[in-house]
Specification:
- With 292 residues, the protein is α+β, with helices and mostly antiparallel strands.
- The chain is built from 10 helices and 10 strands.
- Helix 1 packs across helix 6, helix 7 packs antiparallel against helix 8 and helix 8 packs antiparallel against helix 10.
- The chain starts with a helix and ends with a helix.
Length: 292
Amino acid sequence: MPKLLLRRFLVCVCLLLPALVWAQTQLGSAAALQAKFEAVKSQFDKNAFGRPLVLESTEASGQLSGNIFALVDHPFDQVSAALVKPAVWCDVLMLHLNTKYCAVRGGGAATTLAVSVGRKFDQPLSDAQRIDFVWQPPVSTADYMSARLSADKGPLSTRDYRIEVEATPLPNGKTFLHMAYAYAYGTAARIAMQGYLSTLGSDKVGFSATKDKDASGQPSLVGGVLGVVERNTMRYYLAIDAYLDSPAEAELPKRLAQWFDSTERYARQLHEVDRSDYLEMKRNEYKRLKTQ
């Protein structure tokens, strides 16, 4: 595979920029979320994540999707007030390694997020790729919130990028949150994916156990495209979690450090760069936001 094609694909598969098919992933109401909470809460106390979280992933007909259902230790009013603001999503997206720039454009029904994505190190914006996300009008009621982003086209032949988060309140000041992530891909992306998974991504794994056993007799972890989806689903969720813990502008250093340290809890899946390199890169990218 040509190196340039592979590099462009690495940007695509490592994005914090999801896509989702609404009919397949949206629960759509407080009642549906509460029912899902009852269905998964038994998995919160003991799992591979060490936190109250369930991750699901699927692949079907050229579409990859991931879902996280999690218990968030923040009151619903705080979660809802933050996640219905498009500017907050720029702060969330900017935590990811590959997001180089994000700005809110327009307003009302014409609101978009201008996002530039690139590689895992400092690079000029001219070398990054631009994706314009449409901000869908959010839903916000006393017991349910939903926020959505969408983009028709992504790198190579990827398409139908979306992001959705929905939440509902729980007792004791907690919130049940559902984050959905997916994208569709065509021939060019499939070829690039195959090249990535046979070379640089050959030893990458996700979080879900398969029916097979590894050399030590433990369940093997999912690899391939489902591993890609699961890794990025987790990165995205951890970005939301880090923002909710440290939402103030003055808390940016704490937020960056928390996101990186949280990913390192799952180093086998998520480690890419050293902590100091990540923090320096992000400091530079945030400075650039103020000058563009």
